[in-house]
Amino acid sequence: MSEDELYPLLKVYEGRGASASGVGKDLVNTPMIRHWCEAMGDRNPAYEGPDAIAPPTMLQAWTMGGLSGHTGRTGAHDELFALLDGAGFAAVVATDCEQEYLRPLRPGHRITYDSVIETVSPRKTTKLGAGYFVTTRMDVRADGEPAGTHRFRILKYAPAAARRPRRPRPVVNRDNAAFWEGVARHRLLIQRCASCATLRFPWLPGCGACGSAEWDAVEADGAGTVYSYVVVHHPRFPAFGGFDGASREAPDAEGPGPYAVGLIELAEGVRMVSNVIGVPYDEVRIGMPVRLEFMRADEELELPVFRALEEGAG
C-alpha cells in the first residue's frame, strides 16, 4: 500500500482513545519509591520520610501493567496497530517520551488515567527502516485530580534489509603493505632477508634468523599442501562460510555451515593461514595438495585462498 493510500487511513485514528478509565495496579507506595531511588542513585531527601513524595519521573511507573498487562485498551489502539502490521510495518521501537507534572504524588494516592492517540506522523525513513511515529498522550490523575501528562512515542517500521556481513579488514601497516599490494596484483609475495636469504611469513620488520632489517620479496609459485587445519562450527559467521568451490566469488549465504581454515605449507617452505576451497569442509585432509587462487570477498577486499587438488595434481 502506497503512502498516499495508507496515511489517510492512519490519520483517522488521531484523537481517538487508546485506553479509558485505567487504574494503576498499586497505590503510590513507599517501597516502590525506595526501589526507584536506589536504582537511579537518587538521594533527594524529598523522597524519604513520613512526608515523602514520589519522584516526578515515576509518573509512568504507576500506570504500567507489568507482565499481566492492562485491561481497558480500546479497539482504536488495536485497529491502528493491526493496520500498520498489515501494511508491513510490524516492527516497533520506543523512541522518546515527554512528561508534564501538575502536582506531587504521595504514598496512598490512587492513580487513574485515560490515553488518546495524539498524532500519527507521515512516513519517515530511518536507519532502522521506513515507518510511522505514533504518539500517545496519557492524562494521569491522583485521587481523581489531574496529576500529570505522559506522552509516549514509538516508531512502527518495516525493518531495512540487512546488508551482507563483510569480512574484517586486514590491518595494513609499513611492515606488511607490500604484501597487500602484491595481493591486489594477484601475486603472493614472500619476504626474504637480504642478508641471509631466509624466507619468512607472515611479514615482519626483521629477520628471525640473523636479525637483519633489510629485505626483498619473492613471488610464491602457488603450489602448497595442507599442513594442518581446523573446522569452524560455531559461532557461524556469514562472511566466512559457504565455500563450495563453484565460484571464485565470496558466497552470500546468510547462515553458512562449518568451513575449513587451513595452515598451508607453500612449496617455498613457509606456511600461511587461509581458507581451503573446492571441497566440502569434512573432506579436507592433512597432506592434501592445494593451489593458490585469489578470491574477491567484496568490492573492496581480495584475498589469497587455496583450492584443493586431486592427489598427484600440481
Automatic annotation (TrEMBL):
**Known InterPro entries for this protein?**
ChsH2_C, ChsH2_Znr, FAS1-like_DH_region, HotDog_dom_sf, NA-bd_OB-fold, Thioester_dehydratase-like
Domain of life per record: Bacteria
Show where the ChsH2 rubredoxin-like zinc ribbon domain sits.
180-215
The FAS1-like dehydratase domain covers which part of the protein?
23-147
**ChsH2 C-terminal OB-fold domain: residues covered:** 218-294
Q: Quote the PANTHER family the UniProt record gives.
A: BLR3430 PROTEIN (PTHR34075)
The entry's protein name is DNA-binding protein
* Organism expressing this protein natively: Streptomyces marianii
